[in-house]
Amino acid sequence: MQENRSSGVGVLDKAAHILDCLEAGPASLSQLVEATGLARPTAHRLAVALTHHRLVARDIQGRFMLGPRLGELSSAAGEDRLIAASGPVLNNLRNVTGESSQVFRRQGDWRVCVASAERPIGLRDTIPVGTQLSMKAGSAAQILTAWEEQARLVESIHNARFSATMLAAVRRRGWAQSVGERERGTASVSAPVRSPAGKVIAAISISGPIERLTRQPGRLHAEVVCEAAAALTEALRS
């Protein structure tokens, strides 16, 4: 049963529900109605009002998405908790696996590297902080797509290198792997990072050459990547 998060101020709770839904990425009005259970006129009125205050914006397809004001407020509040908590976890993951490690978060139609720990020596698969990568390929993209609502999941797998069947397997086992999916010669393993409410908000990954990670990288590293994801999830609850 979902926790009752009502504040007793109905219009504020409904607006917050819309923002919660947009955390996963852009949504059409129909998708907002489906996700929130609000009446279509109510969802439209609140989304437009939130747009006026720059808490919500529109993408080039006219879909609603989180607006720039939220980023400004986040900066004003201090360092992003996910980024702050990621450093020690990524460093440990890199040290245990010997591979570069990253945290990705979805922003619109892209996944963005928000934290990383690189291998100090040898051949590296460098993904600098701030790098935007496709949501259509790679184990982190699989993680950030697998737990989306059905309508958005169907939309997300269009022209993707992974299928709905593959994402069902990701949800079942709790991790994803890719071999040459995003970039030829590169493999990766990823697992979901969850918010205190249990929502998937990021993916933690390791990546490197297939020569080191093999064509079954999950067999080598899934357990430790999942442990890192659990550690980062727990850090966000603290």
UniProtKB/TrEMBL annotation:
User: Record's Pfam families?
Assistant: HTH_IclR, IclR_C
Give the domain of life: Bacteria
Q: Has keyword Protein transport?
A: no
**Keyword Nuclease included in the entry's annotation:** no
Q: Which residues form the IclR-ED domain?
A: 69-238
Q: Which InterPro entries match?
A: GAF-like_dom_sf, HTH_MetabolicPath_Reg, Tscrpt_reg_IclR_C, Tscrpt_reg_IclR_N, WH-like_DNA-bd_sf, WH_DNA-bd_sf
Keywords attached to this entry: DNA-binding, Transcription, Transcription regulation
Record domain HTH iclR-type: where: 9-68
Name this polypeptide is given: IclR family transcriptional regulator NdgR
Q: What is the lineage of its organism?
A: Bacteria, Bacillati, Actinomycetota, Actinomycetes, Micrococcales
